Amino acid sequence: MKREKKEKPISDELIDELLKQGRTAEDVNGLLKQLTKAVLERALQGELTEHLGYSKHDPAGHNSGNSRNGVTRKTLQGDFGEVELEAPRDRNGEFEPQIIRKNQTRWTGFDDKILSMYARGMTTREIQGHLEEMYQVEVSPSLISEVTDAVMEDARAWQNRPLEPFYGIVFLDALYVKMRYEGRVENWAVYVALGINLEGRKDVLGLWTSATEGAKFWLNVLTELRNRGVRDIYLVCVDGLKGFPQAIESIYPKSQVQLCIVHLVRASMNYVTWQDRKKVVADLKPIYKAVTADEAERQLSQFETKWPKYPAITRLWRDQWERVIPFFAFPAEVRKVVYTTNAVESLHMSLRKIIKTRGSFPTEEAAFKLLYLALTKVVAKWETVQHWKQMLNYLDTVCGDRIQEAGVRR
Which position among 25, 192, 241, 316 has the lowest Cβ density within 10 Å, counted as fewest Cβ atoms? Predict the structure, then answer.
C-alpha cells in the first residue's frame, strides 16, 4: 500500500511571529490574505520559471528567445475576501499559468458556493448580501447570474442524456410553480418523471414545464423518454388525470398503469368536510391496505354503507378501480416499493421547500435552472430502494422476457 505523504506542519515559532501583527479576527483575516497573496505570487513565479527553463537573473536566459515581462495586476475573489495579485507574464505571451489561470477572477470553489446558495432557493440579492457579510466580498448581480447561467449547459445535457432501456417503475407527476407570463403571474406545471432502474436506484429522468397539466403534454414527455432510450416500463404510477393511462399505453402498450393511491385519497378529501376528514381517511385505509383486490372491493362497499353522505368518493374509486387493482397483485414487500408516499411525494416535498422561497420565476429557464440544481443535491443523497431484491425477483418472474427484449445486459 502506498504511504500517503504527510504535509509539513507550520512551526509554532513562525505562527507566533506572524501573530505579532495582531490577534483580532480582523488581524488574522488580514494575515491570511497576505499569506494567500504571497504564496500564490510565489507559485506563479515558480510556474513561469519552469516555463522559461531558467530562474530570474540567471545568465542562461540571455538570448533564450523569451524572457520575463513584468506583471499583470488582477483581483481574485474567494472565501478570504478580495486579494490583489501580481501575475507574472512572459514577453512572447506563451505563459499559461495553472494555479491561477488567465482571466480567472474567482478562487476555485467560490462558484460552487454561489451555486450551493442558489440551489437552496436564495435569490441573487440574498446571495450578494451573504457573501458580503461572511467574506467581505462585493459580488455584482451580473456575476451571480453569470455563474448560475453557466449551469444551463450541464442542465440541457442532463435533460437530453440517454436513459436505460428498462425501468421497473416510473412515477409521473407534476408540481406547480409561479411564473411571470405576459405581465401576469400564473401557476405553471413542472412535469417530473422519476424512475427506478433494475438495480433499485431512483433517478429523475427529466423535467418539463407547461402552462397546464394535460394528457397531451404527457404524451410528448413519454415520446421523449422513448426517443432517449427507454424501451419498456413495467409499471407506471400516475395521478387521476383524464386520458393519462391512454397516453401511456399508446407509447408503452405492455406497461401496467397504477393510479397513485396518495392522489386518490387526496382527491377524495375534496368532497369531505373539515370535521370528517380524519375519520374518512382512516376508513379509506382498509381499502388500499387490503390483502387482495376482492377484499379491497368489500372494504369499499363497507365504506359506501358507512358514509352515504359522500357518494362522490365511492363513485371516484369505482370509476378508477381498474387502475387501482394492479397494486393488489404484488407481494406485500413489493407494494412498499410501489406505494408512492416515499418516492415522488418526498421528492416534490424537497423541491417545494426550495420553490417556496421564490415569489415567482421570470422565465421557464429560471425555474428549470433552480429545480435542476436542487435535484442534484436531492439525488446525491438517494440510496437503493428498500425491499428491491423482492421487487427484482418479482420482475424476473412476471416479465423477464420483456427485460431481455428491451436490450438489458445482465
Answer: 25
* pTM score of the predicted model: 0.70
d(CA 67, CA 91): 6
Distances (CA, A) of 64 to 50, 52, 54, 56, 295: 14, 9, 9, 13, 91
Dig out the grid coordinates for 85 from the structure.
495579485
Q: Where are the chain's structural domains?
A: 15-55+67-107, 109-149, 164-405
**Per-residue confidence (pLDDT) for residue 189, from 0 to 100:** 86
Query: What pLDDT is recorded for position 2?
Result: 41
- Reported as a single tens digit per residue, the pLDDT across 280-297 is 999 999 999 999 999 999
Residue 387, φ and ψ in degrees, nearest 5: 65, 20
The predicted model gives 330-336 an average pLDDT of 78
The string of pLDDT tens digits covering residues 369-391 is 888 888 888 888 888 888 888 88
The Cα 29–Cα 34 span in angstroms is 9
